[in-house]
Design a protein that fits this description.
Blueprint: H1 9-18, H2 20-26, H3 31-36, H4 45-54, E1 57-59, E2 63-64, H5 65-78, H6 85-115, H7 123-149, H8 158-165
Antiparallel strand pairs: 1-2
Length: about 170
């Protein structure tokens, strides 16, 4: 749905760029797939490199580049009414995908004392990691394809939350 105005090529490019953050964060869950099928890692190398940059600590144990990028996108892109709604919506949607990944990491770390490290469980840990990796990769690819088409990517719950958070 593109009823909020025309979408330029520049808007599409910046909107697609926002989905690099959740893709980089989800790439860590693809390790077991990358080990089983080594050639599949090549399309994900830029995201793995981005993840390395995002994990650089500015203030050790407190602020990383990821936090600065996250807050910068929220305050300087999403809350800026001079930027087209299409770009702000896609930026918000990518941040929401990243928040879901953070919640998964928190729940995983809370369950790790009870279950042990999910990766050490073996098959169950691989299924968990593969499901997250494939799910988030599919969601990001879907969002990028819709963005290239100039349409709003409609994902259940995530899109509704993004619409509520992005001012008109």
């Amino acid at each position: 749905m593109t009823f909020r105005g025309s979408v330029t090529l520049k808007d599409k490019l910046f909107s697609c760029l926002a989905y690099a953050l959740p893709m980089a964060s989800a790439a860590i869950y693809g390790i077991s797939i990358f080990n089983q099928v080594p050639y599949i890692v090549y399309p994900f190398l830029p995201f793995i490199a981005l993840l390395g940059v995002l994990n650089i600590q500015i203030i050790p144990q407190l602020i990383s580049v990821d936090v600065v990028v996250f807050l910068s996108i929220y305050f300087f892109v999403i809350r800026n009414l001079n930027i087209p709604h299409f770009v702000r919506f896609n930026a918000m949607q990518s941040i929401l995908l990243r928040i879901i990944l953070i919640l998964i990491q928190v729940v995983s770390s809370l369950l790790s004392p009870v279950l042990g490290n999910l990766s050490s469980i073996g098959f169950l840990g691989e299924v968990f990691d593969n499901t997250i990796f494939i799910g988030f990769t599919a969601a990001c690819i879907y969002a990028v394809v819709q963005t290239i088409r100039g349409a709003y990517a409609e994902m259940p719950i995530v899109s509704d939350a993004a619409y509520y958070q992005v001012p008109h």
